[in-house]
Amino acid sequence: MWDERYATDAYIFGTAPSQFLEKNAGLLTPGETALAVADGEGRNSVYLAEKGLAVTAMDSSAPGVEKARRLAEAKGVQVDFRLADLKTWSGHPRNTMSSRRSSSSSRRLSSGRRSSTASNAP
């Protein structure tokens, strides 16, 4: 389903980050790590990288990940993009992320969860 949706030159969700990320940008700490799950075309992972975070982004759509890579390149940021189907993936997110994150520096976002995780929600 997502492969077909992303099989266009246009970014179907746009290239601006989700409203949640923009609203909580002040809680993002440069140098920390973030995992963007179901990242789609990369708008959230790229935004997090622009804010100075080390980002690992995962999605199950190859066309989506390819568009995300192009967006990151256009914005001049680096994101560790992973093509992964989370229904069958047996890894653990911590195993795919940089060790630069320290447990004492996690921040609580307005949702109350400890995370710098992004979604494709508007």
Describe this structure as you would to a colleague.
- With 122 residues, the protein is an alpha/beta fold.
- The protein has a single domain (2-87), classed as 3-Layer(aba) Sandwich (Rossmann fold), CATH 3.40.50.
- The chain has helices spanning 2-6, 19-23, 43-50, 62-75, 93-96; strands at residues 33-37, 54-59, 80-83.
- Strands 1-2-3 form a 3-stranded parallel β-sheet, covered by helices on one side.
- Helix 3 packs parallel to helix 4.
- The radius of gyration is 14 Å and the shape is globular.
What attributes does this structure have?
single chain, 122 residues, alpha/beta, Rossmann fold, 3-stranded parallel beta sheet, 5 helices, 30% helix, disordered C terminus
Distance between the termini: 19 Å
Structural class, please? alpha/beta
Helix content: 25-40%
Work out the number of β strands.
Answer: 3
Topology:
Blueprint: H1 2-6, H2 19-23, E1 33-37, H3 43-50, E2 54-59, H4 62-75, E3 80-83, H5 93-96
Parallel strand pairs: 1-2, 2-3
Helix pairs in contact: 3-4
Briefly, what is this?
With 122 residues, the chain is α/β, with parallel strands linked by helices. 30% of the residues lie in helices and 12% in strands. A three-stranded parallel sheet has the order 1-2-3, covered by helices on one side.
